Amino acid sequence: MPHPLNTPLGRFGVDTTHEGADRCVASIPVAGLTNPSTGEATVAPLALLVDHIGGVVNHLRRGDGEWTVSSELAVEFAPGAADTIATAPDVPVVGVARPFGDKPDTALALCELGVRDVVATATVRSFYIAAPAELFAWPEASSAPRPGPRLSDLMAVEVAESGGDGSALAQADDPVLNNLVGTVHGGVSAMGLELAGSAAVQRAAGAPFRTASLRVNFLRPFHGGGEARYTARAVHAGRGSGVAEAVAVGADGRTALLARLTAYR
């Protein structure tokens, strides 16, 4: 099931083939997309796929009057994941998510992503709240073309001044990127953190590094526009490994998401 182009999932070409409380299966095209700050091939879109499939499994386990809010997302990338994806440019990455453990006030989903081989494993943790009194309706399906082929076009981001040795991306206000509660989709913001974090490591090390792991904490709703941005700084850049800390700051100037990224040469 392809999603309408004027929704976050449709914008990035996500195709969902199964949705259920027992399993969610979906795919996303990744080959050819690059980090706007470095120009290197990126695995950032896998965070969007993970957020989607893991979030669906957790959400469909909710009880009457409950809603889900994602609180944590973690992805472990296989060594050479970007290379594996590049060897099959016409094959999308397929992700499968399943529930893990009981569902008390929180729920955990386990995910596996692959092309011809497994390229990542991941988890999504959600907690349950009272269902919102009002939700935004998805817009009518549109056949309008996507804004451009580059990842920066799809995400409505542009490279910004970091004010130091780190990296920064400005997040524009694009309603297509919002979820049902009117804030930037969690998978989109997780992508932004990966892009900023990996760029910060590469800038500090002065050489290409490959993302090995990404852990994101969702603290509060993230709104694009104004001063909304993703910023990151390397806290370690050695000969063989690097670590970056990244934040997403919303239009209100408050930190909405935190992330830590580890990369290897």
TrEMBL record:
Record flagged with keyword Phosphoprotein: no
Listed Pfam families: 4HBT
Ranges of residues in domain Thioesterase: 182-255
CDD domains: PaaI_thioesterase
Key words, A-Z: Hydrolase
Record-linked NCBIfam families: unchar_dom_1
Protein name per its UniProtKB record: PaaI family thioesterase
Organism annotation: Mycolicibacterium rufum
